[in-house]
TrEMBL record:
<dbReference type="InterPro" id="IPR011013">
    <property type="entry name" value="Gal_mutarotase_sf_dom"/>
</dbReference>
<protein>
    <recommendedName>
        <fullName>Glucose-6-phosphate 1-epimerase</fullName>
    </recommendedName>
</protein>
<dbReference type="Pfam" id="PF01263">
    <property type="entry name" value="Aldose_epim"/>
</dbReference>
<dbReference type="InterPro" id="IPR008183">
    <property type="entry name" value="Aldose_1/G6P_1-epimerase"/>
</dbReference>
<dbReference type="InterPro" id="IPR014718">
    <property type="entry name" value="GH-type_carb-bd"/>
</dbReference>
Amino acid sequence: MDIFSCIRKKGLPDVGVWNPWEKKSKAMVDFGDEEYKQMLCVNGAAVEKPITLKPGDEWTGRLELSVVPAS
């Protein structure tokens, strides 16, 4: 079955994708040494233009990830 993922975000102009790979995964106590092979982390981010808040300012970001079967 094919699947598609959908990323919806607000206040987060960028998306970061990472994997801890072999060395870092072995240092993670809640992560099996070989689990990095089946893991991908997707985060909403503000990398290109970081968000800077002044005292008293507020900011909200939202990220929604969903995986749906292809029709």
